């Protein structure tokens, strides 16, 4: 029916399952059948999604291949009306504290399920947190997810997590890491919801580290050897300094600051677990989290809607800057960033247009 998301190697479409008469999301993945690494990554994502089964984790409902295109695979998911980034960016929308706590409780419950099953998500951010019309939040996009060793003995890649949500150990090149990477990203999401904007918007990896150390403090001396960091010496702060989270976010409730100071600890061992975060004072302090069924109803909104809105504004701004003496025909903002994809999948019981 329309494109509702996408990344470098995939696009997500809203589609209609004609056999089951329901709306679903189709994630179209293009891959090179001669590239074993590409196939390995796709297989890992599917295996992880099959293993996870929780109300706050997106459900993989099936797979689909197209006869004439062996390099394209469709993953079939339940359809979700919103993502957290798109929802929080709606004009006039302001989340109440019970609402934020409701979303964060669901996020941490889903994350606890992932970690209990030895799965690292590795790309936690507000646009990967989907919300349906009933207010139920589900963790989605497991394209960078992997299984992990609880003892951190198996080296993993550092090229994961979106920059603004990436923990310091990954920026410093650590290849032995665990659940702390997801907890750091979760702290960034919580801070973003209360601040109304990303709290660590670095321009590049060096700037990102500078912003992290300035907000959260510099690492202790044993941090560098404990995480087996080899290339980090030039990036070590010359002078040690402490955390400024409480000072920076003094307008936040005390229980929020306490949770942020834990989740945004420079040392991943001090970030705790998703289960311990659920037991924190944050969720015991009034106002308490509301039930998802009590949440307001919103028009469908996703990250792609924000991008389309921003593109429309840029186009309008460019028109205004043109020479007023030159005749300019009015430009109507297209409702989609690309031409509609014309694909007929009737034989599979789907209609995508």
Automatic annotation (TrEMBL):
Superkingdom of the organism of origin: Eukaryota
Protein kinase domain span: 1-283
InterPro entries according to UniProt: CDK (IPR050108), Kinase-like_dom_sf (IPR011009), Prot_kinase_dom (IPR000719), Protein_kinase_ATP_BS (IPR017441), Ser/Thr_kinase_AS (IPR008271)
GO molecular function: ATP binding; protein serine/threonine kinase activity
SUPFAM superfamilies for the chain: Protein kinase-like (PK-like) (SSF56112)
Keywords noted in UniProt: ATP-binding, Kinase, Nucleotide-binding, Serine/threonine-protein kinase, Transferase
Binding site for ATP: 27
One Pfam family, short name: Pkinase
Chain intervals for the UniProt region annotation (Disordered): 309-333
SMART domains: S_TKc
Family: Belongs to the protein kinase superfamily. CMGC Ser/Thr protein kinase family. CDC2/CDKX subfamily.
Annotated protein name in UniProt: Putative cdc2 kinase homolog
Gene that encodes the chain: F7H19.120
């Amino acid at each position: 029916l329309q494109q509702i998301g996408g990344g470098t190697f995939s696009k997500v479409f809203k589609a209609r399952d004609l056999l089951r008469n329901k709306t679903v999301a189709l994630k179209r993945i293009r891959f090179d059948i001669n590239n074993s690494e590409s196939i390995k990554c796709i297989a890992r994502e599917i295996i992880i999604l099959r293993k996870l089964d929780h109300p706050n984790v997106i459900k993989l409902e099936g797979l689909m291949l197209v006869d004439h295109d062996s390099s394209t695979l469709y993953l079939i998911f339940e359809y979700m009306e919103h993502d957290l980034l798109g929802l929080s960016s709606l004009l006039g929308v302001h989340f109440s504290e019970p609402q934020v706590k409701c979303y964060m409780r669901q996020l941490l419950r889903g994350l606890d399920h992932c970690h209990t099953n030895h799965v690292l998500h590795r790309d936690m951010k507000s646009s990967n947190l989907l919300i349906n019309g009933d207010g139920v939040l589900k963790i989605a996009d497991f394209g960078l997810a992997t299984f992990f060793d609880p003892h951190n003995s198996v080296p993993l890649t550092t090229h994961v997590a979106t920059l603004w949500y990436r923990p310091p150990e990954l920026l410093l090149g650590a290849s032995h890491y665990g659940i702390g990477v997801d907890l750091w990203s979760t702290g960034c999401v919580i801070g973003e919801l209360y601040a109304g904007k990303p709290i660590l918007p670095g321009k590049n990896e060096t700037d990102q580290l500078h912003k992290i150390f300035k907000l959260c403090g510099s690492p202790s001396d044993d941090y560098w050897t404990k995480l087996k960091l080899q290339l980090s010496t030039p990036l070590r702060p010359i002078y040690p300094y402490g955390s400024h989270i409480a000072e920076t976010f003094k307008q936040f409730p005390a229980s929020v600051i306490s949770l942020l100071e834990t989740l945004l600890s420079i040392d991943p061992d001090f970030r705790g677990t998703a289960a311990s975060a659920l037991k924190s004072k944050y969720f015991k302090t009034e106002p308490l989290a509301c039930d998802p069924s009590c949440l307001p109803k919103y028009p469908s909104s996703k990250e792609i809607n924000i991008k389309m809105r921003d593109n429309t504004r840029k186009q309008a701004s460019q028109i205004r800057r043109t020479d007023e003496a030159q005749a300019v025909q009015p430009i109507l903002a297209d409702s989609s960033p690309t031409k509609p994809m014309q694909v007929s999948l009737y034989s599979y019981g789907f209609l995508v247009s």
